Amino acid sequence: MAGGIELDTVLRFVDIAVDALSEAREEIDALNVYPVPDGDTGTNMYLTIAAARDAIREVPGAPKRAALSAFSRGALLGARGNSGVILSEMMGAIARRISSASKDERNAEVMAQALRQATEASYAAVGEPVEGTMLTVARAAADAAAEAVKDPAARTHDVLKAAAAAARVALGHTPEQLDVLARAGVVDAGGRGICVILDAAETVLTGKRPVPVTQPLGQHVIPVPQLAPAGAGDLSSDGPAYEVMYLLDTQDGEIPPLRARLGELGDSVVVVGGDGLWNVHAHVDDVGAAIEAGLAIGRPHRIRVTHFAEQIAAAAGEPVAAPRAHAPVGRTVIAVAAGPGLAQLFSDAGALVVEGGPGRRPSTGQLLDAIAGSGAQEIVVLPNDPDSVRAARVAASTAESDGVGQGLRISVIPTEAQVQGLAAIAVHEPGRTFDQDVTEMTATARHVKHGAVTVAVKEAMTSAGPCTPGDVLGVIHGDFVEIGDDLGEVAIAVLDRLLAAGGELVTLVRGAESPEVADRAVAWVEEHHPHVDTVVYDGGQERYPLLMSVE
């Protein structure tokens, strides 16, 4: 039979698949002991297919190609967990093959090829494929479909019938391939989900009811689902503690090095997608590093972080400690400080301080921890460093989307210098409305002209010319504008530039090294700009003997 697989058939499939996974989700969750016994594989696969169903139903009357594209994108955007991400890649590959089919192709051949491409895509998406998992079950189904379609008389339902039967047999073998399954006395949870989906596809074309999970399949019997006994597949003390997922807008060529970097940070790495949008999944200990790997090459969003210990405890019915004893209330400011003196200044102004600075900038995870631990309902974040602005924004987005606090409001003011943060917090007023407070702090920070002096540690070409180790560099708004050999002279040159357009207040922040340069700067301002006020703080920051601002 040719003419292409009809869209109505796809719509019936997604409805039946969603219903079937809804019924089987608890059973599949109970089978979940690999790669982490967190008891959510069935739920993740159900939510992924449900998202794809919702997406295709939201474009009624759309041409088949557009509807299938919506289905594929819906699966990608809605994918949850390791199993969900792999499943979304499979569904996307199948949708693309059905969409590209010509009228002259046999539907049975299209379906067999779609299953093959789905399997290849899923293996390619996984950093380190493991046999005895849903990958193995999918491959067995594709192999059986390819064999069945060799018969010129084979129809689509013959292909799906063979694929579903082979998947069930392969599922029965998974404990022989993966020791953790054998020890727990269960088959692979993701593989069971694949069987449910293939059974749904067969049902659409034949009306046949799926084989019950406890029915003997050839010589293999799928064990009745049971929770893994204590210790079976448990997280080790040095194993990854968190599941991190996010969508990533980036160029497709950036994905191989991203997979490699996530593989260095943890395991269960799955990155799927294409055309600039990717779904990223990994199990790691360092949440911030996993997110920052995405930040380095694109825009992560819809970030979800799951702590396995809490999830496993919840699945076992054990009490999970609440992150806060009380609902979030009030307003607070979180400030990144680059030195002990700066930390004290921010703290004295009422801010919660996160340590930062060159070489020890805070991770997204650290900022997220600060947000979660603040106990506040309204939070203003001052990154005070250009490289920390994006991390702060990701932390804020994660906290808001993941329900760190009911009704939580977070605003990241993009301060790129410590002195901008000091100016912003100086006008912070909790008595104002949140929006008014943020507006005033933002406006103040933007009007601050800021500079600094530092010492070159290597040869480089700067916007002010070439520098060598030991040269003194003058910085304005992050750009090198002066090169010299005397800290005081370069500091004065920077101040002269900052004050060229006028100003009423100069703020100087002494660093940990060469604090005397601040005294020379004060003397120069008093001599050349006697009507300008000067305030000096001991910041204790490293690498920058003097930070400066003009307001």
From TrEMBL:
<dbReference type="InterPro" id="IPR004007">
    <property type="entry name" value="DhaL_dom"/>
</dbReference>
<protein>
    <submittedName>
        <fullName>DAK2 domain-containing protein</fullName>
    </submittedName>
</protein>
<dbReference type="InterPro" id="IPR050270">
    <property type="entry name" value="DegV_domain_contain"/>
</dbReference>
<dbReference type="InterPro" id="IPR048394">
    <property type="entry name" value="FakA-like_M"/>
</dbReference>
<dbReference type="InterPro" id="IPR036117">
    <property type="entry name" value="DhaL_dom_sf"/>
</dbReference>
<dbReference type="InterPro" id="IPR033470">
    <property type="entry name" value="FakA-like_C"/>
</dbReference>
<dbReference type="Pfam" id="PF13684">
    <property type="entry name" value="FakA-like_C"/>
</dbReference>
<dbReference type="GO" id="GO:0006071">
    <property type="term" value="P:glycerol metabolic process"/>
</dbReference>
<dbReference type="InterPro" id="IPR019986">
    <property type="entry name" value="YloV-like"/>
</dbReference>
<dbReference type="Pfam" id="PF02734">
    <property type="entry name" value="Dak2"/>
</dbReference>
<feature type="domain" description="DhaL">
    <location>
        <begin position="8"/>
        <end position="203"/>
    </location>
</feature>
<dbReference type="Pfam" id="PF21645">
    <property type="entry name" value="FakA-like_M"/>
</dbReference>
<dbReference type="GO" id="GO:0004371">
    <property type="term" value="F:glycerone kinase activity"/>
</dbReference>
